[in-house]
Write a structure and sequence with these properties.
Length: about 1250
């Protein structure tokens, strides 16, 4: 099996230098003074060290299984065997002998041909004096874009006189001083890893160099092999907060983990670029990368080239560089900078002049001097655009507030006498600083691209780039125009359209404004609010005379300051814009010692020690730290697999479902199962939990489908459109998503024509809509007017200047009111709010010989009727005002603010239709969009008084979708006033389960969306319950219980012990503390869970199938199946049962739902297809139940107990139409107190909010949630 196990820290280790014979010749020339300066020698690979390193003498019996997993793609590398001088040795037949060679298996995707030059990028020079060892870093990229990392240490070994030899080999001799030596030969050790452990491997290789100082009669290869063997046995930690600690002697080496599965490993000092460049220059370099320029870094320090380049790559995460990345170019590779495509490369500063003169259109960045310049440019070379000014300003302020100097941190600390303590203290400081730098750069990326989502259509995967550009400030548009054309941005768009919850999405979500959350709830056209307008008036980027940008028009002019670049960093200052995220505590796990020689028994002992250490850590860890527990299980499973203990490894991986499923190694487990010996597979199948795990993993493989990752830019259509194509095009344009509204728009645009729309009509309509949108955004009201309006109001329509009885001016329409913007000195005169309108008429008034069309509006709050001579605009304004009036009345009657937003959309569509068609039938066409006005006139829908008084509010979880979605389950979770909360979860929440595993979470204090649509599986969700303050359990028809962490709002755990649909979950509370949870499935299985450990306490099977619901009372479980009611002990022993066939066989075929009312010894049930309720005596189920008939009810669908009431959700009739009805029944009197008609479709879900409110959710025809007050 190939590529199954995650590779260890070491992939391969290579020794590079010059062969002994060539070194001898060169040193002899120097000692005999034949030459003064030798030209650089060509380095060669002298030794290659590839895992595994178990001695061949030992039987590999203990590693047979693990070797099968640890194979990687390899190829043969031919390495010369060193012998005594063999040149010019001839066979008897006169042919020259060729050197013997040896085939060595090496990783396939590592280029060993160019490696020697990269290990000595400046050339291999024999020196006459000892030089200090130095380290640099390499990055290799294969054709698939996968990166491999190298850490290279160059060190020098002395050769005495260069001519002494022993058995044909140069003789190395240890001396106290270097005076006896005239020549020093450089060697390089290169450690290659799949992971960017720059600092860790630098420390490791530094420890090795201590042992490679001049010594006598010891083989260098043995030392390096021992070193490589240690690294090959060190696993890489899974993502999270667990780091691995290894004693390499004399240093303690830390191998950090990545923060989450999608984050990169960060094992370097992220602040180094901030020491080399001013913040403005950092932004310029980031701009060059984002616009995919051809970039070359220069430095006299080879190590800095890679580290600085890698830092800039990490600054842009999660955006990824998609092009050539070669941070170090050797002398032989300088021609790479002539490549015509985008790249990022690094050269020694000595080559700066040559590169700048020979290559065109390069961005040349000197790390040493802090210069950013252009090489010679062609005539059409465009200047690098400015960074968006607001994002740049925030970035600069936050960078300047950082403390970048460790020495300043030490001033107040006592001196440490322990080197390891000093090392850990420095590492902790660096980690904290790295986190701060990451937060700053990520916030910068979010600030730049936050509003991209407003121009995405997720259903059709379209990005409207032109409209996005129009919403940018004029000074920022050149930047976005360039960035939007790049491969990097294209990949970023794919992730957004796939709704990937990466670092960008998490930060964007956590920093959403209240307005952003409101916009998620109402799919209405965007305009500037009064608050935004007020800030815009004094924003320099909108003033022609001022423009605050970070500009880079001429790179040659950018020079570093004479003063040190980072004097500002000597002082810490707090900025208002700083975003403080909670820091995560790091846990160190110490890897056991590895002993040599590396015999198989010692490897086995190492694995055993490793597992014992992990087991001890697991046993002492508290179960509430499940994330750390998961990391221990993962590592123990990995080591168990290396040891060949497959069943133990599977068991550990299976535990990840209950601790943190994000790190579950699906591919590894699948390959384990595929290659498992029949005997092992048979043993696994005998263990139910492993059999279930194997089944799930193999089913996932069959279910894998190719992710649709295409991205389209919106383009106007070029052919005629039928209705379906028109719907798609309008949705892609972002104008409106609702299908019913688009159908009405289609009817409006095709009045008097065939039922198809030509490209010109669509273009005229689209352009008019966008022009009107742009004009509305440019409306700049004076402060005196803004003061009269609410902060969230927007001006959506302005008339031409007209004469009114209030004066001359323009009529302005917001979502709340009409007002007159008077001319001359701009002033505000309120006309009316839509709620206060009493009548609207379109009439004419006589003026001389003319009849002037006039709009009259009568308001409840004003005696005088408003009149405006709107002339040609009169009919359109008449339609618009009536639609807004009707929409406002609907919104007030139904307590649903979405109606006014929908009316507003209809009004703006009317305006665009009239502007686009320009014909005699335009007003008639626009009237097709008068949806609410027609509803009011044609079918007066009076909301019953009881409904209106009880209904408090309505919200729409399907806002922004193309069609409504059924609400299957509702859950209210109360807020917790805890001063220690850091995640904003102190507010109450409403959880809505929609179709296909979607969950929407609302802030129940403001009824705004807190978490927009995260998925738990893809099946229908059946139940939700808050188990404790930190977790919500969700049952699904896929037989899985999903556990949501309410702090992180993520699903990292699953319970998969059921074999059929999970139907219900209940929690047992003892002393107000959740102690145990019970879940039931359709096949009659009931499982009792330990809430803290998630282990199964008990499991039992009821004698009946079709188990739909359970309740807990008096230490007994009340179970409702399709055919009977059961009372059982918590151990599953049935105490009493009532069979439906024996009691209600003539009137009821199957129970649909039930509710226990223990205070009154009542059990309430309903039956499939019935409009009757049956109330049973809980003390004796054999008694005949009392029947309650519900008037105008087709079927009872759900019920809950609230105080002394039973609330019943149903499908019923109201005013002759099918509606969702709620019946409120007094449990004592068993009479219907209220009939509530608040839904247009079946009531599918009910939940109580602290017995003060009841929330109801409806079916897919409406898909809304109603909030009702409880008396």
């Amino acid at each position: 099996m190939e590529d199954a196990l995650p590779p260890g820290v070491l992939e391969v280790c290579v020794l590079v230098g010059v062969p002994a014979e060539r070194a001898k010749e060169a040193t002899c020339q120097i000692s005999q003074k034949k030459v003064r300066d030798l030209p650089p020698l060509d380095p060669e690979i002298l030794s290659v060290f590839v895992p595994p390193f178990i001695s061949k003498e030992e039987s590999p019996a203990t590693n047979v299984n693990s070797n099968n997993f640890n194979k990687t793609k390899r190829r043969s590398f031919r390495k010369k065997k060193e012998r005594p001088k063999i040149e010019n040795v001839k066979n008897p037949n006169g042919d020259q002998k060729t050197p013997d060679t040896e085939d060595i298996s090496v990783p396939k995707d590592i280029d060993f041909i160019g490696l020697p030059q990269l290990c000595f990028p400046g050339g291999l020079h024999i020196t006459s004096e000892l030089k200090e060892a130095h380290i640099h870093f390499l990055v290799f990229t294969d054709v698939c874009g996968n990166r491999t990392y190298g850490v290279v240490a160059q060190y020098y070994q002395p050769m005495q006189d260069g001519c002494n030899s022993l058995n044909g080999q140069p003789y190395w001799e240890s001396v106290q001083t270097a005076k006896a030596f005239r020549c020093f030969i450089p060697f390089a050790i290169c450690v290659i890893s799949r992971y960017p452990y720059f600092n860790a491997l630098k420390d490791c290789i530094s420890c090795l160099l201590v042992h490679l100082r001049p010594f006598k009669d010891v083989d260098v290869d043995d030392r390096i092999k021992e070193f490589a063997a240690k690294l090959s046995l060190i696993p890489t930690p899974p993502s999270g907060t667990l780091h691995l600690l290894f004693n390499m002697k004399p240093l303690q080496i830390v191998f950090p983990s990545r923060e989450d599965p999608d984050s990169p490993i960060i094992d370097l000092d992220l602040h180094l670029p901030l020491l080399c460049f001013r913040p403005e220059q950092v932004l310029q370099i980031l701009t060059c990368i984002l616009t995919e320029q051809r970039i070359v870094f220069f430095s006299s320090d080879w190590a800095l080239l890679t580290i600085i380049a890698e830092c800039f790559m990490l600054y842009l995460h999660p955006i990824q560089w998609q092009h050539t990345f070669v941070p170090i170019l050797s002398r032989q590779m300088l021609d790479f900078v002539m490549a015509p495509t985008s790249f990022l490369m690094g050269c020694h500063i000595d080559h700066f002049e040559k590169v700048s003169q020979e290559a065109e259109d390069l961005i040349l960045i000197s790390i040493d001097n802090g210069d950013i310049t252009h090489s010679k440019s062609s005539e059409d070379t465009a200047a690098i655009p400015a960074v968006p000014s607001k994002a740049a300003e925030t970035f600069i302020k936050r960078v300047e507030s950082l403390q970048l100097h460790y020495d300043l941190e030490l001033c107040h600390l006592s001196s440490s006498t322990d080197f390891n303590e000093l090392q850990m203290r420095r590492r902790a400081w660096q980690q904290k600083l790295n986190t701060e730098v990451q937060q700053i750069t990520l916030q910068f990326i979010v600030n730049i691209f936050r509003e991209v989502k407003d121009h995405l259509n997720y259903e059709h995967r379209v990005f409207n780039s032109e409209e996005f550009l129009k919403t940018r400030a004029p000074g920022d548009q050149p930047f976005y125009r360039k960035v939007l054309e790049t491969y990097m941005f294209h990949s970023f768009l794919k992730a957004r359209l796939n709704r990937k919850m990466d670092a960008f999405a998490r930060l964007e979500l956590s920093t959403q404004s209240q307005e952003d959350r409101l916009n998620l709830m109402f799919d209405s056209p965007r305009r500037l609010t009064m608050e935004e307008m007020a800030s815009k008036r004094f924003n320099p980027q909108y003033m022609i005379s001022k423009r605050l940008v970070i500009s880079m028009p001429d790179l040659q002019d950018i020079k570093p300051h004479d003063s040190p670049a980072r004097t500002a960093s000597l002082r810490k200052s707090e900025t208002e814009c700083a975003l403080k995220l909670p820091s995560k505590s790091i846990t160190m796990f110490k890897i056991p010692e590895i002993y040599f020689p590396l015999l198989s028994q010692r490897v086995h002992a190492y694995y055993t020690d490793f597992i014992n250490h992990l087991t001890k850590a697991i046993n002492v860890l508290q179960h509430d730290n499940s994330a750390l527990l998961a990391r221990y299980f993962y590592l123990r499973g990995l080591i168990g697999l290396m040891q060949g203990k497959l069943l133990d490894a599977l068991s550990d991986f299976q535990n990840l479902y209950k601790t943190d499923i994000r790190i579950f190694p699906t591919d590894l487990v699948r390959k384990m199962v595929e290659t498992m010996p029949p005997s092992e597979r048979s043993l696994a199948d005998r263990r139910p939990e492993l059999k279930r795990l194997i089944s799930q993993v193999m089913e996932k493989q069959r279910e894998v489908t190719k992710v649709d990752d295409h991205v389209k830019n919106f383009k106007l259509p070029k052919t005629h459109m039928q209705l379906n194509d028109f719907v798609k095009r309008i949705q892609e344009s972002g104008i409106v998503k609702d299908i019913d509204t688009i159908h009405r728009l289609f009817d409006a645009l095709t009045v008097g024509h065939q039922k198809q729309i030509d490209p010109e009509t669509f273009k005229d309509f689209y352009n008019y809509w966008k022009e009107t949108e742009a004009e509305a955004r440019e409306v700049n009201l004076p402060r005196t007017v803004i003061e009269h309006l609410n902060t969230n109001e927007c001006v959506y329509k302005l008339s031409c200047s007209v004469k009114t009885n209030y004066g001359i001016g323009k009529i302005a329409m917001t979502q709340k009111r009409l007002f007159l913007l008077t001319e001359g000195r701009p002033g505000y005169v309120e006309i009316t709010t839509f709620r206060d309108i009493e009548d609207v008429k379109s009439t004419t008034v006589a003026f001389l010989l003319l009849r002037i069309p006039t709009l009259r509006i009568k308001s409840v709050s004003k005696k005088e009727v408003f009149e405006a001579n709107l002339k040609t605009e009169c009919d359109l304004w008449h339609l618009m005002v009536k639609e807004m009036w009707a929409g406002k009345k609907m919104a007030d009657d139904h307590k649903d603010p979405q109606y006014i937003q929908q009316a507003l959309t209809n009004v703006l569509l009317m305006d665009a239709v009239v502007g686009a068609l320009q014909s005699s039938k335009t007003i008639y066409a626009a009237s097709k969009l008068s949806y609410f006005d027609k509803m009011k006139n044609e079918v007066p829908m009076m909301v019953p008084k009881t409904t209106s008084e009880t209904l408090k509010h309505k919200i729409n979880p399907s806002a922004g979708e193309t069609f409504p979605q059924a609400i299957d389950v509702l859950l209210y979770t109360p807020g917790h006033l805890d001063a220690a909360e850091k995640f904003g979860d102190a507010r109450p929440k409403l959880w809505c389960a929609l179709t296909e595993g979607k969950v929407i979470v609302f802030d129940a204090s403001t009824w705004t969306i807190q978490q927009h649509c995260f998925k738990v599986g893809s099946s229908k969700l059946t139940c939700m319950v808050m188990v404790d303050q930190s977790q919500v359990w969700i049952g699904s028809q896929d037989a899985i219980i999903y556990i949501i962490n309410t702090h992180s709002m993520s699903c990292n755990k699953q319970l998969n012990d059921h074999r059929a649909h999970v139907m219900d979950i209940i929690v047992e509370n003892k002393n107000n503390i959740a102690s145990e949870a019970y879940s039931c499935s359709l096949d009659g299985t009931v499982i009792a869970w330990n809430i803290s450990t998630l282990k199964v306490n008990r499991r039992f099977q009821l004698p009946y199938k079709n188990l739909i619901s359970i309740r807990l009372h008096d230490n007994h479980l009340w179970c409702c199946t399709g055919s009977c009611l059961l009372i059982a002990t918590t151990n599953g022993s049935v105490q009493q049962e009532m069979n439906l066939e024996e009691n209600l066989k003539d009137v009821c075929s199957c129970f649909l739902c039930f509710q226990l009312f223990p205070e009154r010894d009542q059990v309430w049930t309903s039956c499939l297809g019935s409009n009757d309720l049956y109330v049973w005596n809980a003390t004796d189920l054999s008694r005949t139940p009392q029947k309650i008939h519900l008037q105008d009810c087709s079927e009872i669908t759900c019920m809950i107990k609230v105080k002394n009431q039973i609330w019943i959700g149903s499908r019923g009739l109201s005013q002759g139409k099918a509606k969702g009805k709620i019946y409120v029944i007094d449990a004592e009197k068993k009479t219907v107190e209220k009939e509530l008609v608040g839904h247009a479709d079946t009531v599918k879900a009910l939940c109580s909010a602290e017995d003060r409110y009841v929330l109801s959710g409806s079916g897919k025809e409406e898909g809304k949630v109603a909030i009702w007050t409880v008396e």
